[in-house]
Amino acid sequence: MDEFAWGLPSSLPEKRQLRSIAVVAARFTGRGTQMALVAGEYEFTCSECDGDGSLQVIGTEGELVWDKCDECRGEGTVSYDELEAAEAIEVGRTPLRTPPTSDLHSSPLKDELDQWFGFLSDRQAESTPPANIMIGYAYGYAEAMLLADREEPAREKLDFMIRAAEEFKDHPGFPGPR
């Protein structure tokens, strides 16, 4: 069981708290599995009382917002079973309490986004950080934008993914023109 301190001192400015939480989340999502942070609500278990709580991923840039434990309303440590979390939040799937984004948004842009993300995910072992980490971020951001019916920012992240895939253009299965 890995533990991550999500509750940060309230003396930190709000923007810095959000950035610090985002860094911790990005590190967690990049450990051993591919998980994209997408808009929705992630469940956790509070270390103070073993109660249920949630972590919100909201906003146009996928900001993370700490939500207190539903039971004790405390700001304890979020405890995750890494394998259980990896199974629950798989590549291209939204967090635990929201339906799959394919049920919420279906379009040619979403299909194209999924196609490029799948191709790049298959090449992850051939990529080096931070590029392979940024792909998950770009996908999560684009998916959140599609959920918010904002296609222009989603298209920008898709273009980023296409540029990242250029180094693999000679690879069989390359989704675009060679």
UniProtKB/TrEMBL annotation:
Gene3D superfamilies in UniProt: 6.20.20.10
Top-level division of the source organism's lineage: Bacteria
UniProt protein name: Uncharacterized protein
Source species: Streptomyces sp. SID12501
Lineage: Bacteria, Bacillati, Actinomycetota, Actinomycetes, Kitasatosporales
